[in-house]
Every structure is written in structure tokens, then in C-alpha cells.
Amino acid sequence: MKQQNYDNHIFYYWPHHFLFYGATLLATALCIYGLVKYEEQRLLWAALWFIVVLITGLALLTRQHYALGNQNRTVRLEMRLRYYILTGKRLEDIEAKLSFGKIAALRFAPDTELPALVERALNEKLSADEIKKSIKNWLPDTMRV
Q: The dihedral of CA 24, 28, 33, 35: what is its sign?
């Protein structure tokens, strides 16, 4: 696997992102074709298209809700532990000043950069993207869904 950094940290799960959504895109195209080509069956093709869109939407929402909800909790707990080990202070005391997006961005910082970057994020009110761009030695997260 390539060394992870800011430019390549987004992960795609090919069966879901390309096969499943590719199949739903193809089904959508077929439904549109059916709507145009077979006017006498327009209601049937519209109903089929609605079902395809509904299944696609539900798959996306379910995947996002369960997987990312659990991972966000894990990331927050990991960052609390790392911050405590490195500083002897509880991250919970300053968590209210950091959005989850900023906490998630901080997880890419190695231990040598994390405490100073947390202080910078608080003092300079850095965005999550600015935090990521400030990291000198990227700590990869290859397990994110």
C-alpha cells in the first residue's frame, strides 16, 4: 500500500462505491430508457426507477449511519487516549472547543506533533482541512471505512 498523506487519504471500498453504485446507475439508465422507449408501460418503469432510487438511498444511509457512527466513537476514544498518554491531560476538558471534524483531522498527526497541533488548533481556530495541511509527518489511517 502506498504511503498515506493528505493527497491520497480518501479511501474507496470498490465493491460498494463502484460495483453497487455502478449497478444502480445502470439500473437508473435502463429505467430512463424504458420510460422513453415504452410509453405504454411508463408507470411500471417509473415505479421500478423509484425502487432503485429508494434502495440506493437506503443503502447509503444505512452504511453511513452504522459504520461511521461507530468509527467516529472509536476515533474520539483513540484521540482521548493518545492525548492523555502524551500530555497527562484529559482531552475531554477541551473537546467542547474542537468539532469532531477537527478531532478526526488531528488523528493523522504523529505523537511528536499532536500536542502542539492541538494547541494551534485551539488558539488559531484552525479548520479540519488546515489541521491536515499542517501535519508534517502524516500518520496513516488505513482502516477507515
A: positive
What spatial distance separates the first Cα and last Cα of the chain, rounded to whole Å?
Answer: 16
Quick one: residue 88, left, alpha or beta (phi over 0 = left, psi -120 to 50 = alpha)? left
Q: How far is CA 1 from CA 11, 29, 145, in A?
A: 12, 35, 16
Q: Tell me if 7 sits within 8 A of 13, measured CB to CB.
A: no
- The set of cell numbers assigned to 122 is 485551539
- The rounded Cα 26 to chain-centroid distance in angstroms is 25
DSSP 71: H
CB atoms within 10 A of CB 41: 13
Q: How many CB atoms lie within 10 A of CB 71?
A: 15
The 10s digit of each residue's pLDDT in 4-44 is: 888 888 877 788 788 988 999 999 999 999 999 999 999 99
Q: What is the pTM of this model?
A: 0.61
Rounded distance between C-alpha atoms, residue 111 and residue 10, angstroms: 22
